[in-house]
Amino acid sequence: MNQDRRRQAEDFLQPDEQLIAVCACEPGPGVPNPPEELLAPPEPAALGRRIEEKLPRPLQQFFKARGHDPRRDAAERTPDPADGTGMEGGWQSAAGRFLIGRAEARGSATDVLVVTDRRWFALTDVSPLWQSTPVMQQYWEVPRSAITVVRANGTGLLQKGRMSIEFADLSWVAVSALTPAEAPAFAAAAARYRLG
Hints:
Elements: H1 3-10, E1 19-27, H2 46-54, H3 57-66, E2 87-88, H4 94-105, E3 111-116, E4 119-125, E5 136-143, E6 147-152, E7 162-167, E8 172-177, H5 182-195
Antiparallel strand pairs: 1-3, 1-8, 2-8, 3-4, 4-5, 6-7, 7-8
Protein name: YokE-like PH domain-containing protein
Region (Disordered): 63-89
Organism: Streptomyces flavotricini
């Protein structure tokens, strides 16, 4: 387990909560982006708010309608049918709520998925692009019982770190570990604790 990611996760632990496993990941191939109408509007940065306040009203309305975050451009891809399905269940399912929470956080393209003795949660770096020190924000949390299994099922050259997170409502979503070798270890640690 990467020590930096472990320290980032420890900052979000509740009293007496035990950290089980941490994995840096991103949405797997074929995972769709939530429709814009399901997302809350982004909060403008303090500097951005001050600049927008000085603009004429028509320009203010234009910029509010755009809501563009360049850090998500890499993740804003249309699923390629060759990648296979990356999600099962609608936007109201547990898998859909995971993806909506991720999109609303508007953080970096890489996330930290965390499993503890009580819950699962996910973090993303929401620091400005120019800042080198990460500022982590929790964007999703469920009790351990909400996830039935995490399967490390990497296939082919491009999907070696692929994992399927399967939820109790029978929905699932694919994520890819940034370091493919971490996927089987992460899934095994989560399963081992569940059985213990």
